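Dear Dr. H.,

I hope your travels went smoothly. While you were away I took the liberty of generating a structure for the chain from your last submission, since the lab meeting agenda had it listed for discussion. I wanted you to have the full record in hand beforehand rather than looking at slides cold. The sequence, exactly as received, is reproduced here:
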Amino acid sequence: MKSKKLDMAAPENCVCFNLRWVTRAVTQFYDAEMRRYAIRPTQGTILASLMTKDSWNMAELSDWLGMERTTLVRNLRPLQRDGLVQISGGGRGRLVELAITAKGRKQIEKLAPAWKSAQRAVVKTLGEKRWSAILSDLETAALALNK
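The corresponding predicted structure, in token form, is as follows:
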């Protein structure tokens, strides 16, 4: 059986559109799994990242997550309000220090089973080898495009 050549000029094959569409669908799936913990998937990623070292500044975390600082600030506000993240300092990105609180660590522990369940379901749908290859390809593309 011959494989059909993909028409890359066709709007329905737009890389940006398709990645955004899939990202929205996956985010909605994770959101449904994590909703009972009052944490959005993006906020869960921020909390998990904050657990990887004692202190981050706003610029470091923004760069690490590949997230615009304004988006990061918008996602940090409810985490700070709920006592899950401590923000100190002021001014521009390198002067603002971020740290996860003990309450934030407990919240991550509570939400971990829901995140793991969502993770297993998505990886099972794609297949572990396939997901590993996709992840590698996406990383390669991101590094190449951000030079």
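Two observations you may find useful: The chain has one domain: 37-142. Residues 84 and 113 are 18 Å apart (CA to CA).

With kind regards,
E. W.
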